[in-house]
Automatic annotation (TrEMBL):
Keyword Magnesium: yes
Entry EC number(s): 3.1.11.2
Positions of the record's site feature: Transition state stabilizer: 154
Name of the protein in its database record: Exodeoxyribonuclease III
Length: 264
DNA sequence: ATGGTCGCATAGCGA
């Protein structure tokens, strides 16, 4: 079972890149963030034609948006939480119905939080902190077995998850209040699957800003995208790959896709 | 210290 996650920064614009990913890597399940497409305009047929008949999506005009495209049937949570009461298309919660081993899959797009790391003066940062507190509370009350969480969590928790721990400490995505909250969320029922495969001190990035002349040369990356699994799945975890080369594809996202292989 | 680049509601916002 290969599960891929990608902050695609417009699904419709990058459908050709999805096709290339499918051809090259053949994921069983694709999880997208920042689809930026309202539900009536969702490219359902294109994903079906690529071999994904089972699709869950939640979008809005211009911003946010999440989707899951699967080769296996899926069953969405029929009463998903409305995080921060904003109804802003940041989360999908589905059961993947696999012939031998079903599991629960969460796809998250956490608020980026704006530029100023102060909840008093920056409502976007306040929203980000409130969002992560709510998800933490919610996961303390959910079953702790056979669950996978992926997505753009917009926080790089470890010193080795950013190009310069010291320089990014006051930067939104790596401030102590954020990294502490993300750790608390993770500890509810999950372990960090990426760091089981690639432990520190090896650096691991999934995002490089559009604003660098040469992203590879400057390498000012951050690990904003994550794959978490419940402990019962760790023995089934085979590999995780961060598809760094996709950052060089034509008209690509500033995030790269990553996938996990698990034996079910 | 500043500005740098994307995508979508094609203007200014959010990232």
């Amino acid at each position: 079972m290969r599960i891929m996650t990608w902050n695609i920064n417009s699904l419709r614009l990058r459908l050709p890149l999805v096709h290339k990913l499918v051809t090259n890597y053949s994921p069983d399940i694709l999880c997208f963030q920042e689809t930026k497409v309202p539900d009536p305009l969702f490219p359902h047929q294109a994903l079906q034609d690529m071999g994904y008949p089972f699709i869950a999506f939640k979008g809005m005009k211009s911003y946010n948006g999440v989707a899951i495209a699967s080769r296996f049937p899926l069953q969405p949570n029929d009463s998903p939480p409305d995080w921060c009461m904003k109804t802003d298309s940041r989360h999908l919660d589905v059961e993947i119905l696999h012939p031998t081993t079903s599991f629960r899959l969460h796809n998250f797009y956490v608020p980026a939080g704006g530029d100023i790391p102060d909840p008093e003066s920056n409502p976007k940062f306040a929203h980000k902190l409130a969002f992560v507190k709510e998800t933490t509370e919610w996961f303390t009350q959910t079953p702790s077995k056979a669950t996978i969480l992926v997505g753009d969590l917009n926080i790089a928790p470890l010193p080795e998850d950013v190009w310069s721990h010291k320089q990014l400490l006051p930067i939104v995505s790596h401030t102590p209040v954020e990294t502490e909250l993300l750790t608390q969320w993770q500890k509810t029922i999950f372990v960090d699957a990426m760091r089981l495969i690639t432990p520190p001190p090896e650096k691991l990035f999934t995002w490089w800003s559009y604003r660098n002349r040469d992203w590879r040369k400057s390498n000012r990356g951050r690990r904003l995208d994550h794959i978490w699994i419940t402990p019962d799945l760790t023995t089934k975890l085979k590999t995780i790959e961060v598809l760094k080369d996709v950052r060089d594809w034509e008209k690509t996202s500033d995030h790269v896709p990553l996938f996990m292989d698990i034996t079910l």
